[in-house]
Amino acid sequence: MKYALFFFKMIRKHLVILSEIKMNLNFVTNITHFLDENGAIPKKLTKEGRVIADGLGEVITCVTSGPKKSPQTDVLCWSEINNNLCAGKIDAGIDLENSNILWSCKKCGDRGSISSWENTLWDCGHR
Fold this sequence. Notes:
With 127 residues, this protein is an alpha+beta fold. It has one domain (25-115). Helices cover 28% and strands 24% of the residues. It has two helices and seven strands, in the order αβαββββββ. The strands form two sheets. The protein has a five-stranded mixed β-sheet with strand order 1-7-6-5-2, with helices on one face. A two-stranded antiparallel sheet has the order 3-4. Strand 6 (101-105) and strand 7 (111-115) form a beta hairpin. The protein starts with a helix and ends in a 12-residue tail after the last strand. 17% of the residues are buried.
């Protein structure tokens, strides 16, 4: 019985540790999937969808608004860690090989690419 209790406490300790581990996510996004046929964000988009669309849109705006000395943007990461918003800022830039915007958050490790962003409502035109 004493060994069973010790074993249970060990398992419980590891389950708590595993529940706090966050897997890094890699988003591959065609931004036009968040837009309607007129190029606007549809009103029927879910709250979660709107948060992601707004975050990705801010990344597009930041990257296309002018030359930058650093890849860091002012865009706050929208990911959640243990039900709390990540406090990191997004780094982003344009991949010159395929024109995708690549972004990442150093705090939580989430990253992704955004395609088909040209001529969307967020594109400021400066490349």
